[in-house]
Amino acid sequence: MPHAYVYAAARTPFGRFGGALAEVRPDDLAAVALTGVLAQAPGLAPADVGEVVWGNANGAGEDNRNVGRMAVLLAGLPTSVPATTVNRLCGSSLDAAMIASRVVECGDAEVVVAGGVESMTRAPWVLPKPSRAYPAGNVTAVSTTLGWRLVNERMPAEWTVSLGEANEALGDRFSISRERQDEFAARSHNLAAAAWESGFYDDLVVPVPGVDLVRDEGIRAGSTADRLAGLKPSFRTDGTITAGNASPLNDGASAVLIASESAALGLDPVARIAGRGSHALDPQDFGFAPVEAADKALARAGITWADVGAVELNEAFAVQSLACVDAWLGEGMVDPEIVNAMGGAIAIGHPLGASGARILGTLAHRLQRSGERWGVAAICIGVGQALAVVLENVS
Fold first, then answer.
1. Terminal CA-to-CA distance of the chain, rounded, Å?
2. Given 189, 279, 324, 380, which residue is catalytic?
3. Residue 257: helix, strand or coil by DSSP?
4. Does residue 113 belong to any structural domain of this protein?
5. Which of 90, 279, 324, 365 is catalytic?
6. Residues 288-324: pLDDT tens digits?
7. CB of 298 closer than 8 Å to CB of 304
8. Which is nearest to 319 in space by CA: 219, 378, 222, 244?
9. Is pTM, for the whole model, over 0.85?
10. What is the pLDDT of residues 145-193, one digit of tens each?
11. Is 166 inside any structural domain?
12. Bridge partners of residue 393, in order along the sequence
């Protein structure tokens, strides 16, 4: 059975909510990332792409009707290139990459592009359709930008709390202070700014035509925990989570090129997809789910945390990232300094459907530059899930 390799990665800069990418449709953003990653494979004929697997968490607006297929058409690929869209909320594009790797491993295709997109700015309001014509009462438009909407009344109330409240409870459970969260957030901003200054992201990020944005829009160089300490709590009056120590709302797209070793791409593989893991638990505890997902992926790769030289953990909230790192550290598993060494989602942004492919592409690039052999990409997912992938450097 052939192995699946990451050959290339590309993404757009991530824009702020209502920021530089606000006027760009999500299907157009997806086409930019798709075109960008294919441009890195000079030997690949577009018609030889066997499948496109695309992640998207919303699907309620311009990203409806299989945005992966729309990206293929808008990117000018042959109409013979098939595509599908998957939705595992925040983990959608990492799920897409995992699916792509299985497609390659089972021999259904030699070359697959995986990726994802989200425009949280352009996510629409929706109205529930009445079961009868002309209801007498008022109808409320519901924002589809983030979180639960049109909740089924049969769901237990504790499962449907806000993402913020769920992570306030996680902070209580593990006694994670506001100070630690603000320190973690400031670190994310400063590492992301330093990574951009060093040129780390130059080969990973492609411009969006017609938009004057060359870097991730939300990074605040020079952030300090003292400055972040002045922000008000967002979910509880006496809470610890603020707009400064949680990931923001964002727009963006990302893609990775996954293929077999024998694929004719005109470039060498960067990393082998060596292990995959998924995990689920109570919906309100979703922030802690990456712990077990990563452990499963490592076990399937046949290695342990002692072998790992780089970790990309999506920073949905500082508190849940710290809870995961603390769990791994408590078992002597991971050095915190190797986690998100090029910044994380608190600074870079978290356009839901695009984040999984972003961390996977970043991880592959880190391994290639550092020479470390093994890395882990992990992401928490709303409604109580997480995914993780282990990469082996072969560059």
1. 21
2. 380
3. strand
4. yes
5. 90
6. 999 999 999 999 999 999 999 999 999 999 999 999 9
7. yes
8. 244
9. yes
10. 999 889 999 999 999 999 999 999 999 999 999 999 999 999 999 999 9
11. no
12. 271
- 157 within some domain: no
Question: Which position has the token pair 């990074």?
Answer: 219
- Do 380 and 290 form a contact (C-beta atoms < 8 A)? yes
Active site residue 324: no
| Neighbouring C-beta atoms of residue 370, cutoff 10 Å | 14
Q: Give the pair of three-digit tokens for residue 259.
A: 């293929």
The answer to whether 350 is a known catalytic residue is yes
- The three-point CA angle 219-376-168 to 5° equals 60
Residue 187 is assigned to a structural domain of this protein: no
Domain that holds residue 267: 5-123+248-393
Q: Which two tokens stand for residue 52?
A: 């496109």
**Residue 269 belongs to a domain with what CATH number?**
3.40.47.10
Q: Which helix (H) or strand (E) holds 6?
A: strand 5-11
Among candidate residues 189, 279, 350, 365, the one labeled active-site is: 350
Total number of domains in the chain:
1
Beta strands in 25-138 (DSSP E): 51-55, 83-86, 111-119, 125-126
Q: Is 279 a catalytic residue?
A: no
Bridge-partner residues for 119, per DSSP?
251
213 burial level (CB within 10 Å; 0-12, 13-18, 19+): buried
Written as six digits, the tokens of 234 are 């967002």
